[in-house]
Design a protein that fits this description.
The structure is a single chain. By secondary structure, this protein is an alpha+beta fold. It folds into 4 domains: 194 residues, Histidine kinase-like ATPase, C-terminal domain (Heat Shock Protein 90, 2-Layer Sandwich), CATH 3.30.565; 123 residues, 2-Layer Sandwich (Ribosomal Protein S5, domain 2); 135 residues, formyl-coa transferase, domain 3, CATH 3.30.1540.20; 95 residues, Ribosomal Protein S8, Chain: A, domain 1 (2-Layer Sandwich). The strands form 5 sheets. Strands 1, 2, 3, 4, 5, 6, 7, 8 and 9 form a 9-stranded mixed β-sheet that branches.
């Protein structure tokens, strides 16, 4: 066995570079973090060859004195921590003192700096490193701050250089690293140049303006504000609406104390918050910032500092989950009521300009409101869930038109989703509101309404049961009969009373009150399949939402069913007050607004 010996400093740094400096983008990240830790207000990045030929970062931060330049390139030399207490409360982005030493070990590096406010240094000083060789400090021209120039990355580690991709690919990674850092600190200005051309120029601005500049109009106008602050935790930023979700996770930015991280715990909290409103394998876009006491989070768990560990991970998970669930719980009415609101508090225009809303708000929708209300006479608050829409509509259909007319409000205020005009293809409801045309998928919308009512009822202890006047008999195999008999108490908790009629039949004696007019056999069969496959305990706990979704789907109004104007308006009013009614419980959108401006543009009309 070979003798144990201490590795040379250069080899130690090159090994560390394999962890810290995976590619030019990783080096750029480390240099940008150093600049921000130095208090820089303006940072300029210059790249050539995707960052492999040149990577230069200049800032106006605090700077480094002449005597400390060589120390800055030494391994484990840092000004950011000095003791274990400092390590347990790290507030800076960097703290290990490895970045500059690792980068210098695999490149030709020049460090130029001048200490801000120092009377000792009348000019800047520069030091160069190539492998293990350091030059003595030399005078240089620099007003204040620090410039790190990295050339020929991996020139002395050809194996590592072979793993680099094309110039375009490496630049794309550098651009992404730049975006992550720029999003985290909107109070600083950033400039990015590549091969002599300015690619991005960002001045210090509000967070909303920074998000708009880096994430684009699509995210800006299809996102929801999040701002929750309690128990020493604050979560703020923007999350994409469910219908703007993407096929990949490339637009997800989560920061803990302004450090970009990829954490499984937080990712799970986000997925849980979106589970009721996201369709299929889509992924939400978001820019979120979590702030908490640095002592409650350990950032020293990954070489690239992209993972963290929380002291109380369960509390953080629940906080993030509930904050995002609250932001996503708005009804279709909440969204429709504010179509002319700016996408950001800073005043960026939304899809429908305010001038158009002011013009159209006094048009036919408002003028015809008494006419529509005389047909519907629907209240603008949610009704108690006492049965399927047939029951609700049947009661209202029996009212004389004269009575409905006298009970209608006298004002001409148009509800957020407007009043129904017609039904299209047996599936869609067409309505008119203050902004223009509203199109509603009636089955998807009703499914969400029933789903939320079922969740509320079950949270209150049990779903109300409605005995059937004439019990329904359904054919069932022996396993279904045994499932109904063995799980009778659990089934009663969700509103079902079923008993064996024979070895091959089940008698359905009661259904959930709000689903009493659904197809009893189809509904009971779907529930029994869930209980049989997963067991009653799992169905009522971890798979509760899946079960209620099955029930809501069977109970929702079907396609090709003709609805009266009264029925359509009742559905619109329920959508306006039901949480998450912008999507069905499978994540598909339930409605869409088409403004008069869009219609005018399509038909080339001028007003």
């Amino acid at each position: 066995m070979p003798d144990i010996k201490v590795l040379p400093d250069l080899l130690i740094n090159q090994i560390a570079a394999g962890e810290v400096v995976e590619r030019p983008a990783a080096a750029l990240k480390e240099l940008l973090e150093n600049s921000l830790d130095a208090g820089a207000a303006t940072i300029t990045v210059q790249l050539a060859g995707g960052g492999t030929q040149l990577l230069k970062v200049s800032d106006d931060g605090g700077g480094i004195t002449r005597d400390e330049l060589a120390l800055a390139l030494a391994r484990h030399a840092t000004s950011k921590i000095a003791s274990l207490d400092d390590l347990e409360r790290v507030g800076s982005l960097g703290f290990r003192g490895e970045a500059l030493a690792s980068i210098a070990a695999v490149s030709r590096l020049t460090l130029t700096s001048r200490k801000r406010g120092s009377n000792d240094d009348k000019h800047a000083w520069a030091i160069s490193a190539e492998g293990p060789h350091l030059t003595p400090p030399e005078p240089a021209a620099l007003a204040a701050g620090t410039t790190v120039e990295v050339r020929d990355l991996y020139f002395n580690t050809p194996a590592r250089r072979k793993f680099l991709k094309s110039e375009a690919t490496e630049y794309a990674h550098c651009d992404e690293a730049f975006r992550r850092i720029a999003l985290s600190r909107n109070d600083a200005g950033f400039t990015l140049q590549h091969n002599g051309r300015v690619q991005r120029h960002l001045k210090a601005q509000s967070l909303d303006e920074r998000i708009l500049a880096l994430q684009g109009d699509d995210f800006a106008h299809n996102s929801i504000v999040v701002d929750e602050d309690s128990s020493g935790l604050r979560l703020y930023g923007r999350i994409g609406t469910p219908d703007s979700a993407r096929a990949s996770r490339d637009a997800q930015y989560f920061y803990v104390n302004h450090r970009f991280i990829r954490d499984k715990l937080l990712a799970h909290a986000v997925r849980q918050a979106y589970q009721d409103v996201l369709h299929g394998d889509r992924h939400p876009a978001f820019v979120l910032f979590l702030e908490l006491d640095p002592a409650l989070v350990d950032v020293n768990v990954h070489p690239a500092k992209t993972e963290v560990r929380f002291r109380d991970s369960r509390a953080v998970h629940q906080y993030v989950f509930h904050a995002l669930s609250k932001a996503l719980s708005g009804s279709a009415g909440d969204l429709a009521a504010r179509p002319d609101a700016p996408a950001f508090a800073g005043g960026f225009a939304a899809a429908v300009p305010a001038s158009n809303t002011q013009r159209y708000s006094g048009s036919s929708a408002a003028a015809s409101a008494p006419f529509y209300r005389s047909q519907s006479a629907m209240p603008l608050v949610a009704r108690d869930a006492t049965g399927f829409y047939d029951t609700l509509f049947g009661e209202r259909a029996a009212q004389p038109a004269a009575v409905a007319s006298t009970t209608a409000p006298a004002d001409t205020t148009v509800p957020p989703l407007g009043y129904a005009l017609a039904q299209l293809a047996g599936v869609y409801i067409l309505a008119e509101n203050a902004q223009g045309l509203v199109i509603v998928d009636m089955h998807a919308a009703h499914e969400r309404i029933m789903y939320e009512k079922l969740k509320t009822a079950l949270d209150a202890a049990a779903i109300p049961m409605q005995p059937l006047l004439v019990p329904v008999t359904m054919h069932a195999d022996a396993l279904d009969v045994a499932t109904a008999e063995d799980n009778s108490e659990a089934l009663q908790q969700i509103g079902f009373d079923m008993a064996p009629g024979s070895p091959t039949t089940l008698t359905i004696r009661a259904l959930p009150a709000m689903l009493a007019d659904a197809d009893a056999r189809e509904l009971a069969g779907g529930v029994l399949r869930e209980v049989r496959e997963y067991g009653a305990s799992r169905v009522l706990t971890e798979r509760r939402n899946e079960l209620l979704g099955t029930m809501a789907c069977h109970a929702a109004v079907r396609a090709n069913r003709r609805l009266t104007t009264m029925e359509m308006n009742a559905l619109l009013r329920d959508m306006e007050v039901t949480e998450r009614s912008g999507q069905c419980n499978h994540g598909r959108p339930t409605w869409r607004q088409i403004s008069v401006t869009e219609l005018d543009q399509f038909f080339q009309r001028g007003r």
